[in-house]
Amino acid sequence: MATTKSDRPAYLDCAASTPVRSSVLDSMLPYLTEHFANPSGAHRMARSSRAAIDDARDICAAALGFDPHGIVFTSGGTESDNLAIHGACGAQGRAICPETEHHAVLYPVEANNGSLIKVTETGDLDLEHFESLLDLDLSVISVMLVNNESGRIIDLEPIADLRDRYAPQALLHTDAVQAVNWLDVAVAAERADMMSLSGHKFGAPKGVGVLAIRKQVGITPQLLGGGQEAERRSGTHNTAGIVAFGTAIQCLHESRTSEIERLGKLSARLADGLTAAIAGCSETVPRSQRAAGLLQLVIEGIESEALLVLLERHDIMASAAASCASGAMDPSHVLAAMGFEREAAAGSLRLSLGWCTEDWEIDHALNFIPKCVEQLRRKL
Predict the structure, then answer these.
(1) 380 to each of 234, 301, 307, 349, how far by Cα in Å?
(2) Among the listed residues 274, 287, 342, the one whose alpha carbon sits nearest the alpha carbon of residue 150
């Protein structure tokens, strides 16, 4: 990776999205040009497209620890989460999830007679409260493996143990959209019945995702039509996107261990430098409990929106929380659930690294973020 500044901005928002890898782009382009046929057709060109989808399905299954038949291609993480929760609940079911989930889980849970699980001050589940919500009427439990804002890693083992004891009929779903970069999800989600992923978080294009489903699990489809994906998700396949997803997950699977080491060192250097240079700056989750490349800070005496504007002027792209809404800058619901006061939560900053992150970007951030914070504080 480059160690000197390039002509592009310092991009520290990889939890929001990443660029498409060059190898991924190369793999998908033929399916936008000469191999354009609808894979649901019966002729030779259609069969060629269908074979490419089947190959990508096999690659995903091997990387994720699921059977190929359980790989359902979707439009992304939000659709996968909705399919898992609505599909498990049907017309009368009930769902639960932690207070700190992404809204793609929170809102479907709310729509299905949902209850929210309390979390600790470091973002872990309050297992005592979780146990109190378990009963024989529960349809699905949704718990993300790595929080998209704080980076907190959640161990699914004690959750699955309690589920097996008190609500064995309930399905366990995990949103692994962030986790796939930082954990071997085949191991970390071994006890999960369903798992959601989104390609643009690890070098595939936007608009393609996966819901991985165990063999014994049945769900109610939410999109009806041509019966694609074994009747679980109708709609013409995004062949190019699916091929890209398969290539990207293979690249990630092969490089994850070395990238965790590389990016973990960069993130630690960034955290150490910023907390040393900025008074009243702290990490929201201990490093031993969060993903290696996802750093969330709270900075006293500033507002996130003003800081992000200043950082952009210095070619630093970052965020305060999740980047899936219209740009509204409400204080983080994740930090509120963890017990942070509204004023503290209003000064949050998320700096997330990914496969495209280079050393110079960390140097650039360490140079300008403290200066921007000082400038804002002088205005108070």
Answers:
(1) 55, 8, 13, 19
(2) 287
The residues annotated as belonging to the active site are: 324
pLDDT digits (tens, 9 = 90+) for 44-78: 999 999 999 999 999 999 999 999 999 999 999 99
Amino acid in position 250: Q
Q: Are 298 and 335 in contact (CB under 8 A)?
A: yes
Could you tell me if 209 and 299 lie in one domain?
no
- pTM exceeds 0.90, yes or no: yes
Comparing CA positions, the residue from 321, 325, 299, 315 lying closest to residue 363 is 315
**Are the C-beta atoms of residues 211 and 198 closer than 8 Å to each other?**
no
Tens of pLDDT, residue by residue over 92-116, are 999 999 999 999 999 999 999 999 9
Q: Which residues contact 222 (CB under 8 A, 6 or more apart)?
A: 82, 83, 86, 87, 233
Residue 356 lies in a domain: yes
Q: Does residue 326 carry a pLDDT above 50? A: no
Count the domains in the chain.
2
DSSP states of 107-132: HHHHHTT-EEE-B-TTS-B-HHHHHH
Give the per-residue pLDDT at 321.
Answer: 72
278 shares its domain with 215: no
Edge-first strand order for the sheet with 71-74 is 71-74, 209-213, 194-198, 171-175, 140-142, 95-98, 115-117
Q: What are the C-alpha distances in Å from 261 to residues 264, 291, 318?
A: 5, 11, 22
- Tell me the average pLDDT across 28-34: 97
Which structural domain range is residue 305 located in? 10-19+256-378
Structure tokens at 42: 């019966």
41 in a structural domain: yes
Phi, psi of 240 (to 5 degrees): -60, -45
